[in-house]
Structure formats: C-alpha cells, structure tokens
Give the backbone structure.
Amino acid sequence: MRHFALSPYFAMLLGLLASCGWSTESPEVPCMLEASKQLAEHPVLQRELSLFNEQKIDPMLLEAKWLGLSHDSAEILKIINNPASPLIQEFITQYSIQGEGFLIGLNGGLVAATNKTTDYFQGDEAQFTETLKLPKGEIWVEKDVADESASSLLVKIAVPVFSSSKVSGVLVIGLDEFVVDFYGDCEKSGGHLPVPPAH
C-alpha cells in the first residue's frame, strides 16, 4: 500500500516542472524508491536483523526509559553505532540534506538508527505494521509527515526486509520533503544508486 498525499508546495512544484516539459514519470523519481529496495537487501541489514530477532528482547522494557536516556547513553549508542546505521545514513545523504532512518526488528524494537528517535518501540506505527504485510519488492510511502525527532517534514519510505524468503524486519527512511534530490547519483548510475558494500 502506498500513500501519496502531496503537499501544496510539492504539487505546485510538480505543476511548474510539468509546464516546462518535465514528466512526473521521469526515471529519477522511481530511482530513489528502487534504491531503497536495494538497501533493504543489503547483507549487513539482513544480518543485524537476524541477530536482533534471535535475542527475543522485550522492547517495552527499553521503551519505558527511552525518553530519559541521554544521547551518549550505552543503550542509544548501541543502536546508533550498529553496523547498519552508517549504511542508512549514507543512503539519506545521497538524496537529502537532512533526514533520519532506522531498522526495526520483528518485535517492533529499534535495531539501528541514524539518531535517537522519539520512541524506541515502533511496533504500533503504520510504517511498521503496514509494511510487514507487504510482499517482497513492495514499499510503503507517506508524504507530509511531521517528525519530531528529525525536526522536519518528511517523506517516509518503508521497505520490508526479507531473509530466506521470510520477513525479518522493516527499513524506514525519512527524507526532508523540501530538499529531496531526485537526480544526483541516479542519473549518473543509469537509474541504480550504488549501495555501500558489505563490511
């Protein structure tokens, strides 16, 4: 399921581009979405999700004290320094001046993140619950998302991550709605964003 509720600013921008001969079917736009699916197949993300899911953690224990944790606490640093976090950050940097991204395990808890989110438990968010229902290759998109932790209006892209044909979690990418770069490396790489290599 995809949600595309364009903001007035975005709709006006697309209208101006169309009047100049630019098509909304341009390959640059799908490139960002296709690249997010490529990132969801990255072996590092798949490995970190598998390791996390094996631990059988109760996410509500950390959720209960999440807001009171400092940004340099051991619990926060473990998530931000997860090997998947820099890969997600590198993806965001390709398209947006700012944004956020995170990886969610099957129990709804955070596995990796580019920054401290408002909540540790993401299991009650539509970006998680709806994306878990999707088959491989599909994505969930929502525009005009006012995000407190990123302090901006975001375009949220969520992709189910599969391991051995079974869903193992969800990758969520939030890009600043007003500075998303639909061109950049997409055009240079023939429509495919180079995904960082496995470490």
